[in-house]
Amino acid sequence: MEEQKKKCPFCHIIAGNIPANKVYEDDKVLAILDINPAAKGHVLLIPKEHFPLLAMCPPELFRHLFVKVRDLSKSIEEGLLSQGTQIFIAGGAAAGQQSYHFMIHIIPREEGDGIEVLDLPHKTFPKEKLGELKAAISKNLNIMLGRRFGKIKSEKITKEQIFEIIDKNSQLKNIILNSPDDFKNAVPANPQLKSIFSGFDLDELISEVNEKYGKTVNKKNEKADGNNKSAEKSKERKSKESRKNANNKKNNNKKGSDSDGSNIDLDAISEIL
């Protein structure tokens, strides 16, 4: 997470390292004008603490954010005389999230403005499919609420369900694989993550995730590295052989030339690159 913070442009804006047009600020949040706005007055509301995803944002902070969304939305409508505002969150790459610092978009809207944000298609589903979806959502919601408030009797989430969640969430999978310590720190600090992973040995889970997904990634990388190295060695060998006579002549005619062959190595490297 710390490495992610160092690369996050919004964290740099909050720290004052990157200039921005601030429209509101308090000790918890910052509102700025989007530099690539969908419409005039497009505002981004961000927490000052770095949270990549909605699920990692603490409930208290989330409540504070939406109090400010209400105030900013009203201010934008009155200040710009807009006909309304569109408020949305892009959670995850599949939903259009481009920067992994959680944010809320507030976009002024006018009739016929041509903006197609959330231009949703109208689909129909069989009744039995709707029933399956309702059951799946209700079951998971009961589990989460039961663990958080202790008021709803809920079934214990299984390891198979955990891996299904990880398999469908590439960001969560990457955090577990690449930043396991950040994942372990985030789980007890975030009620939503805590409700999902409560009762599981996180070290054991991390080990199993690496066993299941890490090997596949490593094998792909090893295969690619092996192919690249073989190609590079072949190319380097041919390059050195083809330039052997030319390099000897060059070194004989060159005054003060190094005797360690460094020039030849540099030439070979440049050929490979």
Strand content: 5-15%
* Mean pLDDT level: 77
Number of strands: 5
- Overall, the morphology is globular
CATH class of the largest domain: Alpha Beta
Helix/strand order, N-terminal first: HHEEEHEEHHHHHHH
Low-pLDDT stretches are: 249-273
SS-based structural class?
A: alpha+beta
For the biggest sheet, the summary is:
5 strands, antiparallel
Q: And the CATH topology of the largest domain? A: HIT family, subunit A
Report on this model:
This protein is 58% helix and 9% strand. By secondary structure, it is α+β, with helices and mostly antiparallel strands. The chain has a five-stranded antiparallel sheet, with helices on one face. Helix 9 crosses helix 10. The radius of gyration is 27 Å and the shape is globular. The model is unreliable at 249-273 (pLDDT under 50).
Topology of helices and strands:
Blueprint: H1 2-7, H2 9-15, E1 22-25, E2 29-33, E3 43-47, H3 59-80, E4 84-88, E5 104-109, H4 127-149, H5 159-168, H6 170-178, H7 180-189, H8 191-197, H9 202-253, H10 262-272
Antiparallel strand pairs: 1-2, 2-3, 3-5, 4-5
Helix pairs in contact: 4-8, 6-7, 7-8, 9-10
Summarize the structure.
The protein has 273 residues and is an alpha+beta fold. The chain has helices at 2-7, 9-15, 59-80, 127-149, 159-168, 170-178, 180-189, 191-197, 202-253, 262-272; strands at 22-25, 29-33, 43-47, 84-88, 104-109.
Task: Please give a handful of descriptors for the protein shown.
HIT family, subunit A; 10 helices; single chain; five-stranded antiparallel beta sheet; 273 residues
